[in-house]
Amino acid sequence: MTLPVLRLHCRRCKDTALATLRRTICKNGSTLIFWACPDCFVRISENIAHRDLEGVFLNDIPIHEDNRPPWSKCAVEGCNNTVVEEHHFAPRAYFGDAADHWPTAMLCAAHHSEWHRRVTPGLLRDVSRRGKTHAA
Length: 136
Known about the structure:
Elements: E1 5-10, E2 15-25, E3 31-36, E4 63-66, E5 84-88, H1 92-95, E6 104-108, H2 109-119, H3 123-130
Parallel strand pairs: 2-4
Antiparallel strand pairs: 1-2, 2-3, 5-6
């Protein structure tokens, strides 16, 4: 499949070129798509909504940057989900900066939510009472 191109101005090259689609894979496995200069590969657009790329297959877009950690699979045995987020076993809401000294694991959103629902059910309620902005 031929990917679309778009004539855009590159602020680094100071020239107008046929920009190409590129994608960045975020730490949690989500994907950001944008236009990049074909000469210097600098990003020259805001993120493009996936729904605006009708007929373009995500895997056909070259990867610009892959930020996934090497262990980017859910740590729960038998779960092969690769869209994961870092889970702190010592929630920041309770441990503050000391949470960085405790172990973490990569969990898919479903298992991350399940862990908090079972182990720290009052965490979000306690955090909102104290006025903190994030839980774990």
